[in-house]
Each structure stands twice: as C-alpha cells, then as structure tokens.
Amino acid sequence: MKTIDLDAVLALWDQPVDGRTDAAADFRQWYADPVPVNGTPATAGALVERARAMQVAFADRRTELVHRVETADRLVIGFFIHARHVGPYDTPLGRVEATGRRLKIRVTDILTVEDGKITEIWVMSDEVDVMRQLGVL
Q1: CA dist 7 → 11, 65, 127 (Å)
Q2: For the chain, which residues make up each domain, given as ranges?
Q3: Is this prediction's pTM over 0.90?
Q4: According to the model, what pLDDT value does residue 95 have?
Q5: Helix, strand or coil for residue 135?
Q6: Residue among 51, 44, 7, 31 at smallest CA distance from 115
Q7: Within 13 Å of residue 86, how many CA atoms lie on the same side as its CB?
C-alpha cells in the first residue's frame, strides 16, 4: 500500500474548510472522487460540506488517534474527536442546537487505500454516547 499522510487527512477535518483556495481539491489529494462512505458515494464537494457542517457544530476540534492498524490495502484508525458543541448538529434523532458542552466522540474508520488515495470509507461512531453527552438521551 502506498501510504497516506494521516496527519494531513485528519487536518482536512480539523482545520476550517472556509478560506481555503479550493477545499474540494484539498480533499481530492487524499480521497477518490467520488468515494463510498458506508456504501454511499460522496463527491469531494460533499466531503467538504460534511467537514463544514462539523466545523459549524463543533469548535476547538482536535483528533486524538488511539489505534492505527495497516494491512496491504486497509488503514483502520480508532480515534476520539474532542470538541465543544457550538452550533446546530443534525443527529439520528433530529437537530440539536448548541449546548456549549464539551464532547469526546469515539470513532473507528476503516479506510481502503489504493495508490495513496482513500477509495472507500466505513465509519462507525458511538452516536448513542454522543446523544448522551449532548443531553438528548
């Protein structure tokens, strides 16, 4: 596997997308366009919009990498997203307006990597725990 620069990939999500010259091109550097996310194709533009939505909902975001496992064509990472909830966040139970709460979100990504690009993503996050932290559950 031609490896990817995981720090650069995580920075795409942690650093503001607004103000970049071409945020979609930044995502295309590391992601296929489109790339299946949990089986549904997402364009680079859609990834930018996902990142923007997270950045509107969460401030002071940082990613804490806990596990990294590589095989010939897969990269599996387990991580926590640390953030403060400052804007509207769409959840499986509906929109949650800003609570100001600090969150620690547990996530596992299974990434297929081909020629230095992520060509498939499976994301598993603990949504029940996020809802608990937001005070919804």
Answers
A1: 6, 10, 24
A2: 6-134
A3: yes
A4: 95
A5: coil
A6: 31
A7: 10
